[in-house]
Amino acid sequence: MAKIRWGVIGVAKIATRKVIPAMQCGAYSEVTAIASRDLGRAEEAAAELGIPRAYGSYEELLADGEIDAVYNPLPNHLHVPWSVRAAEAGKHVLCEKPIALNVGEVRELMAARDRAGVKIGEAFMVRTHPQWLRAREIVRSGELGEVRSIHAHFSYFNRDPLNVRNNPAWGGGGVMDIGCYPITMARFLLDQEPRRVSALVDLDPDFRTDRLASVLLDFQNVQVSFTCSMQMVPYQRLQVYGTKGRLEVIIPWNAPPDAPTRIIVDVGGDLSGSGQRTEEFAVCDQYTIQGDLFSRAILENTEVPAPLEESILNMAVIEAVLRSGRTGQWESCDTAS
C-alpha cells in the first residue's frame, strides 16, 4: 500500500506526544523525518519515536526530496511563514490550528498553495472523529427538531510565562488556542456562517492575552454561545438544543485515543431523562484518522478534510470575536479583511 512520507518541522509536544505516534499507526502515512533548530532535540525526538532522519534546521527538512508532506506544529505566528516555504518547496502541508493569525494570512496561504499546486489544510482533527460525524448526522436528521441553541465550554489552566499561548505577539490567547474549536464545530454542525458575533473578553493583567471569553454567535435562527478560558478548571462539553430534543458531546475536543467516546441524545421531553440514550463509539485516535485522510487526499487527488476555503471562514469569526472584545459591539464576520 502506498504511503505518504511526512516530515515534521519542530518538536512541539502536540507533535511528539500526540500527532506523530498517531500518524505512525496510520495505513497511509509514515513519518520519515523531523527537524528542530536544535539538532540535539531533533535527534532525541527521532530516537524516541523511531523516525529515520533528524535535521538541525527546517530548511534541511524542506530540501529533502524524499518527503512528500509536512506537518507544521510551530507556534501560531510561524504557521504561515513556514507553511508557505514548505509549499514553495513542493510539499503538501498539514498545519496546526489556528492556521493563521488573520484572514489576510489565510489568503497568503491560498496564493502559495495555488502557485505551488500543493494541498494545504488545517489540523482540526475533531472534524473527522466518528462522534462528530454522528452528531452532525443527528442534527441534520431532524430528530432534535429545529435546532435553536448550541452551548459549549472549553477551559484549562496555564499561567506559565514561558508558554507560547501566553505571548500575544506569537498569536497567544484562549480564543486562538481553544475558542476556535466551538466556532468551527458550530459551523460544522449547522453548515452555516454566523451573521455577527458579540464577545466579553478578559485579558490577563501581565501577559495581555485573552484569558476568558464569553461569546455569542448569531446564526439568524440559531444562537450559539461558548465560554473558553486558559485560567479555569479543565473542562469541556458541547450541547445542542432543539425543539424536540437535545444532544450532548461528552468529551468534544480532546477525545481519548485509548477509550470509547460517547454522545447523549435525549428526546424524552421531560427532565427525568426518560427518552435519553447513549451512543458509544469504538476506540480510535482522531490524529490517526486526520493524518490518513490527508494522506489519502494526496494519493487520490481529492480535497483535504479542512481546506483553506474553510479556514478563511473560521478565521473571519475568530477575528470578529477578538474585535468585539475590544469594541464591546456586535461585529460582522468579514472575509475581505
Any guess at the CATH architecture of the largest domain? 2-Layer Sandwich
List the total number of helices.
Answer: 9
| Secondary-structure element order, N to C | EHEHEHEHEHEHEHEEEEEEEHHE
- Low-pLDDT sequence parts: none
* Structural class estimated from helices and strands: alpha/beta
User: And the CATH topology of the largest domain?
Assistant: Dihydrodipicolinate Reductase, domain 2
- Computed over alpha carbons, the radius of gyration is 20 Å
Question: Which strand-content bin applies to the residues?
Answer: 25-35%
Biggest sheet character? 9 strands, mixed
Distance between the termini: 44 Å
Q: How many beta strands in the DSSP annotation?
A: 15
Q: Indicate the percent of residues in helices.
A: 25-40%
Shape: globular
Strand order of the largest sheet: 14-13-12-11-7-10-9-8-15
Number of domains in the coordinates? 2
CATH top-level class of the largest domain:
Alpha Beta
Nearest-integer average pLDDT: 97
What do we call the CATH homologous superfamily of the largest domain?
Dihydrodipicolinate Reductase, domain 2
Write the layout of secondary structure elements.
Layout: E1 4-9, H1 13-23, E2 29-35, H2 39-49, E3 53-55, H3 58-62, E4 69-72, H4 79-88, E5 92-96, H5 103-116, E6 120-123, H6 130-141, E7 147-157, H7 174-190, E8 196-203, E9 210-218, E10 223-229, E11 231-242, E12 246-249, E13 261-266, E14 276-281, H8 286-300, H9 308-327, E15 331-332
Parallel strand pairs: 1-2, 1-4, 2-3, 4-5, 5-6, 7-10
Antiparallel strand pairs: 7-11, 8-9, 8-15, 9-10, 11-12, 12-13, 13-14
Helix pairs in contact: 1-8, 4-5, 5-9, 6-7, 7-9
